[in-house]
Structures are given as structure tokens and as C-alpha cells.
Amino acid sequence: MAPPLVSVQMKKNKNPSLVLTLSAAGLLIGAGSVAYWLLAQRQISSSDLLVGANIIPGDALFAVSLTTDPQQWQKLRQFGTKETQTELDKNLVQLRDRFLTNNGYDFQKDIAPWVGDDIAIAILAPTTGNKPAPKPVTTNESAASDQQSMVMVLPVKNSEIAKSILAQPKTLKQGKWIDRTYQGIAIKQSEGQVGQNFSAALLDGRFVVITDSPKATERAIDAYKNKTSLATTGGFAENFPKIANYQPFAQFYVNVPTAAKIAAASPNRPLPAQVLAQLQNNQGLAGTITLESEGIRFKGVSWLNPNSQRVLVVENKAGEMQSRIPAETLMMLTGGNLQRLWRDYVLTSQGNPLSPIAPEQIRGGIKSLTDLDLDKDLLSWMKGEFSLSVIPATPKEGSPNDFRAGLLFMVHTSDAYGGQSLRKSAETSISKLDEVMKNQYQFQVQPGKVAGQPVVNWISPYGTLTATHGWLDGDVAFLVVGAPITDKIVPKPNYTLAGTLPFQKTVPTEPNPTNGQFFLDVERTVKNFPLPTLIPNQQTLLNATRSIGMTSAVSDNRSNRYDIFIELKKVTNATTLPSPEESKNNSVR
After folding, report:
1. Which residue from 78, 31, 84, 27 is spatially nearest to 566, judged by alpha carbons?
2. What is the pLDDT of residue 496?
3. Is there a contact between 123 and 150 (Cβ–Cβ < 8 Å)?
4. CA angle 61, 64, 70 (to 5 degrees)
5. Residues forming a β-bridge with 386
6. What is the pLDDT of residue 353?
7. Listed range (77-86, 165-174, 481-490) with the worst mean pLDDT
8. Residue 121 and residue 166: Cα distance in Å, rounded?
9. Predicted pLDDT of residue 418
């Protein structure tokens, strides 16, 4: 099966939303990575970087590399369901036919004999126009100079075959091929095509560079010769090796500040100046995707701008909460320090229209509902590990309940473990909350016991037990809302989520130590609870997924690491991708 070598439409009438679409596509391919071989002290080599990183200009908005190994693409098609396989095939066939078949090329015959193990595709930012540009080669180029452009880098394993392909390209349906030279590099360029013109060049017999703009070709050659490529961009060479892997399916990179500028220029959702300034602290997001026997693994890293005054606090002290919740837990999210997490959220989200909820709204909502100050009354004692979990209820005969699951919140009130206990401050705030529920909402606030341990129950005016709070092991505060599932955590369960096979198979063990983990049993959750629609084709994707796990950590004071694994179902007797002839016959029918 041929990989989608040209997976980006080479149109000159592009718009700023293209980079966002491609970023989403790259991340969607992505969720995966396997066998982390990297030795922390070894010398960085080109094999540790994204293919073509020494050619792609350093101001690229987005770059993704894809394997050319047909076996890996066939392995991808084995995951999911018949519905997801059909959707994947439709997209791959469209891309292959549009950019290979329709132009007279066959991957196995024309490309595979000379191309390397991976190819790269990058989207370049529009030229700024601050410096005078050389006289344009064509009128079309001048019109496109302020548009996003695309660069493809194809490593060459057989230069003679690659040279012959470039020397005698297929005849164009419109226009003609012309030859020109830039910085001593011969360029083959199309001219006269409606809406698109291509350029191709062979660099040092090692890389074929294909672009949708003559100017983009020159920018790639300049980056290669002047060493102003992605490989020299701040933090890239230092951080990308952290997620390097052997024979990945895909890798990607997002230039955060440049992408933010593009988003700020969008008329639909402009970013305020203060938000844009905050995003300048962030430099890059990169990931490696690999295919494993049971699903897709993603290793990611994000890093700050080397010139940023902001630094990260290296504090990875999560990892206990999954041993406090029962095995039947459907969803779990943990973190190392809720107070610090909130401060980081405020820093990056205040005034940002792209944030889910504005910090001011959260503060105002809590103040309005409880008369408590979020920062002073609550977060001030939430400096330890915390967790949020969804636990299904066990139906009890003769005891009807309006809730099918309970929402459990737990937080360690010690100051970053081993520090000063903040239980007294917590008790004061919780007592205030009890008074609010009693006086403002007419709840009955009643002491009770579960397995001999004291708890406090909130009973609604209708007589239904709505919430329970208490303490575990002295300084872990908990609050249960919804179904009465307190007896599942008090006493501490013998069979915990951490000991289950789904959790152990799905949640990555690296990085370790960690500052947070996430687990979602997709199969059981979808089967028992309706979920809000957040993305197109959501139900199809959920039906193909068994579980999702993530582990994160602060790598150093400039970078964060993330590992994600998505366990997927498999298609029985997966077929091969339809050939161009089969696709043509199907479309005729």
C-alpha cells in the first residue's frame, strides 16, 4: 500500500486555517510511540531529529514526517472497526489518486525504488515582506508570496533513479516544465497551471525537495545552505531527541508562537495582545507516533522559548491516587499540585478566547455559589497530589438512586508531601462549605459513618443523599458527589485501579516520576453513559477504542514530557487498500 506522500493540497489559494487543520490532523494521526531507546547522555545525531529538519526553514508553522513502509500503513489499517477502516481508506485513496495517480505516478513503480524510510511535509509561514524580494519568476508567485506554502522533503536512497525521475518528469495536463538555478541548485519548475505550480530540486544527491511555490524552494535551499533550518531553531535539537524512536510511524512539530500569530490574525477568533505575549514564552510542541500490537503510542514534548523569562518548577510527585480508588473506576485524572496547576492555567488562559473557561468565570462562579474565595479558601491548602474519578454505582435492592455513578475528588493536604500539614486550613474551609449548603441551599448536613470512619453527608431537600465528604489516612480530603460510592474507597479497597490489567496495559509507566496521569475505560463508559459530542465522527472513533492512558512529567525547568497510549479494537481480516483501478471502478458504479 502506498503512503500518502503528498498529503497536503498544493493550492495557492490557502488561508490561515490550513495550519490549524494540519496541526489537528497531525495530532489525530498521533497518539502513540513505542520502545523508548534514547540514552540521556548520548550525542545528538541527525537520526534523532525529524527527517528533513536540516532543510525545513526554521520559521515553519508545522512539520510532520510519515513512514513510507507499506507494512506500517497496513498495520494501521488493522486497528479500529470496519467503519473506521472505510473512513481511513476513503481519505488515503483520495490523497493517493489526487497527487499520484492523477498525475501519472505509481508509488511502487515511480517512488518506492529511490525514496527513503520517511518523508516530511512542512507548512511555512507567509513571508513578512520586510526585506525586498528578488524579481518573481512568475506572476502567480508574486500573488502567492503572502500565503502559506508547503515544502516536502523526500530522503533519497538511490540518487541515480531520483535524478532520472527529475530529469524526465511526467507530462503536465496543463502548462509546461521549465528549468532554472538558485544558489547553484538545479530546479525543475512547472509553469502555466491553473491554481498551482510545483518546484522540485535535488540537494546534494541526498534529498528531493518539492514545494508548491518557487519562493518556498528558495527558502528551503537558503535554510539548508545557511544553517537556518528547523534543526537550529531554539530548543528543537535539545528537546526532539527526548521523544526519538526507532522506526516511528510519524513525527510532528508545531511552532507555537508563530502559529499563535497566525491565529491572532484570523478574523474569526483573534488572540488578544496579552495572550499572544504569553504564548511567546512557549516555543515548540513535538511528538513521535508508533504502532504497537494493541494500539497507538504517542511520546510528546513541549518546551519554552530559550529566551523566555518563565521557568517551570520541576516537581513530579503524583502516582499514589490510583492505588486509593476501586478497580471498577471508569475515569481517573491525577495531578501533583492543584494550586500550581491553577496558577499555570491562569497564566496561559486569562483573557484567552480559546480557553475552555475563563479563570475569572471560575472564580466568580465559586464565589457566587459558595461565598468562598477559590484562591484563599480552597487552593491555599491544595498543594499535594489530587485526583478526579468517575466510579459506577452498585445497584442496591430497595435503595433506588438517581445517579448511576459517583464523582470522587481527593486531594492530599500536606505541602508537597512531607511538608507542613494543611488539614486545619482545609477543615475551616470545609466547615464554611457545610454552612453554605445548610443555610443557603437547605441541605441537611449530617454526620455519619462508613466502615467505622466518620463522614459528613449532604442530603438534599428531597431526601436524597447527594454528597459525602471526609478524610483518608489523616490528611487526604475527599468529596463524593452523585451516587453513594463512599463504601468503595472506605476502607481502602483491596483491588484497586492500579492493579487492573486495563490500567496497566494502557497507562504508560514513563516518564517516571510523574506529575499526573489520566485513564479512561472508553468501552465501559460509552456502553453505560451518554457522552457529549465534541468532535466530528466521535461515535465512530469511540466505537473503535478500548481505553486511553496518559502519563506526564516536568522534564526540566524548560520542558514537559507526555506519553499517551490508545488501546484500539482490531478489524477481523483487514483488507488491503483498493488499487487505483479498483477505486476508479467503484466510483463509476
Report:
1. 31
2. 97
3. yes
4. 165
5. 335, 411
6. 59
7. 165-174
8. 19
9. 53
> DSSP letter string over 155-174?
EBS-HHHHHHHHHSPPPPSS
Q: 3-state DSSP call for residue 405?
A: strand
pLDDT for 260-313, tens place per residue? 777 666 666 555 555 555 566 778 999 999 999 999 999 999 999 888 888 889
- Which cell numbers in the block locate residue 544? 473503535
Q: Are 552 and 337 contacting, i.e. CB atoms less than 8 angstroms apart? A: no
Q: What is the DSSP letter of 381?
A: G
Tell me if 94 sits within 8 A of 286, measured CB to CB: no
DSSP state of 534: -
Instruction: State pLDDT tens for residues 223-233.
Output: 999 999 999 99
Helices (H) and strands (E) in the chain, counts: 16, 20
Q: How many CB atoms lie within 10 A of CB 42?
A: 10
CA-based torsion, 94, 98, 101, 107: positive or negative: negative
What is the C-alpha separation between 535 and 330, in angstroms, rounded? 21
Q: Which of 72-86, 352-366, 526-540 has the highest mean pLDDT?
A: 72-86
Compute the average pLDDT of residues 325-348. Answer: 91
Contact 423, 433 (CB under 8 A): no
Burial class, 268, CB count within 10 angstroms (exposed 0-12 / middle 13-18 / buried 19+): exposed
Tell me the C-alpha to C-alpha distance, in Å, between residue 99 and each of 74, 257, 337, 497, 553.
20, 31, 49, 48, 41
What mean pLDDT, rounded, does the chain reach? 82
- In the structure, what pLDDT confidence band is assigned to residue 84 with cuts at 50, 70 and 90? confident
Q: How many CB atoms lie within 10 A of CB 306?
A: 11
| pLDDT over 90, % of the chain | 53
- CA torsion 448→452→453→458, rounded to 10°? -20
Reduced to 3 states (helix: H, G, I; strand: E, B; else coil), residue 136 is coil
**Nearest CA-CA partner of 344 in 317, 320, 315, 370:** 315
| Alpha carbon of residue 76 to chain centroid | 18
More confidently predicted of 349 and 367: 367
DSSP string, 38-49: --TTSPP-GGGS
Alpha helices in 30-99 (DSSP H): 70-76, 82-99
Q: Stretch 348-364: mean pLDDT, rounded? A: 75
Rounded CA gap, 527 and 522, in Å?
8
- Check: pTM over 0.85? Answer yes or no: no
Residues 6+ apart with CB under 8 A from 454: 447, 448, 470
CA 218/CA 139 separation, integer angstroms:
16
Instruction: Give the burial string for 119-131 (b: 16+ CB within 10 Å, else e).
Output: bbbbbbbbbeeee
Q: Environment class of residue 369 by beta-carbon count within 10 Å: exposed (0-12), middle (13-18) or buried (19+)?
A: exposed
User: Using CB atoms within 10 A of its CB, is residue 47 exposed (0-12), middle (13-18) or buried (19+)?
Assistant: exposed
Cα 14 to Cα 20: distance, rounded to the nearest angstrom: 12
User: In this structure, what C-alpha cell is assigned to residue 534?
Assistant: 465534541
CA gap 332, 321 in Å, rounded: 9
Per-residue pLDDT, 91: 83
Cell numbers given for 84? 473506521
Section 417-429 average pLDDT: 80
Asked if 349 and 337 count as a contact pair (C-beta separation under 8 A), the reply is no
